[in-house]
Structure formats: structure tokens, C-alpha cells
Design a protein that fits this description.
alpha+beta, Heat Shock Protein 90, five-stranded antiparallel beta sheet, 29% strand, globular
Length: 134
């Protein structure tokens, strides 16, 4: 499993996010995560894919998920070819006054060990999620 990479391309449609979540669950289990971490990874991947579907609309209307495996961590990249995400405009949600949007990144950051967002209007957005085996 050392440095194996599993890549999936999915249509930018909400009904296919469950495929990404299921893949994340199976792959995380294979790496050796416990059930609690598997659930966290699955939810974070679902949120990243929801963002790709909602905000990454493009001509191809697909997004890509890459699961990069190692003995000490799982590194997941969800990449769309949309208009990009402006992280400087992101504000953490007010948890006492939820409006329905803006929770995805907050959820990912609370569940994963590392979350990075790389975005520009030419290459779309890539969400990088990392979870370490403890």
C-alpha cells in the first residue's frame, strides 16, 4: 500500500456523492483507520464533494477524487474545474446563528488533521484533506 493512489472521476451531480463517501470508507478501512476516523473521513469527503458539485460547475461537469495512501496517513484531493474558491472571503460560520451555507469547510477542518484549499479561476479548486493514523 506504500504510496498507492486511487483516482475516481464522478459526474457533478449530488446523487453520486454517496459513491465517493463509500469509496472513502472502504479505502480508509484498508489503510487501517478505526471506525470513528473512517466516519470522520467519509463525512469530510462528502462535504468536499458537495462543494465540488455545488460550486465547481464547468463544461466537463465532472470532478476528480484522488486517494493517496501511505502507512501513516491518507491524503485525499477533491478537484473540480470550476471558477475557483476565494479563501480570503471565507468566514467561519457563527455556530449560534447558522444560515445553512458555509459549514462544509468548517466541518472538514474539524474532522481532518489538515485541510488546504488551492484555487484559481483557471484551474478550479482542489481541496486537500489529510488524516494521520495514530
Amino acid at each position: 500500500m506504500n504510496n498507492d493512489v486511487i483516482t475516481i472521476k464522478l459526474p457533478s451531480k449530488a446523487e453520486y456523492v454517496s459513491i465517493a463517501r463509500l469509496a472513502a470508507s472502504v479505502i480508509s478501512n484498508t489503510v487501517g483507520f478505526d471506525i470513528e476516523d473512517i466516519d470522520d473521513i467519509k463525512v469530510a469527503v462528502g462535504e468536499a464533494c458537495n462543494n465540488a458539485v455545488l460550486h465547481g460547475k464547468n463544461e466537463e461537469e465532472v470532478y476528480e477524487i484522488a486517494f493517496k495512501l501511505s502507512d501513516e496517513k491518507i491524503h485525499i484531493e477533491v478537484k473540480d474545474n470550476g471558477i475557483g474558491f476565494d479563501e480570503e472571503k471565507y468566514e467561519e460560520p457563527d455556530l449560534d446563528n447558522l444560515k445553512g451555507n458555509g459549514l462544509g469547510i468548517y466541518i472538514m477542518k474539524s474532522l481532518m488533521d489538515e485541510v488546504d484549499i488551492i484555487a484559481n479561476d483557471k484551474d478550479g479548486t482542489t481541496l486537500k484533506l489529510v488524516k494521520y493514523l495514530e
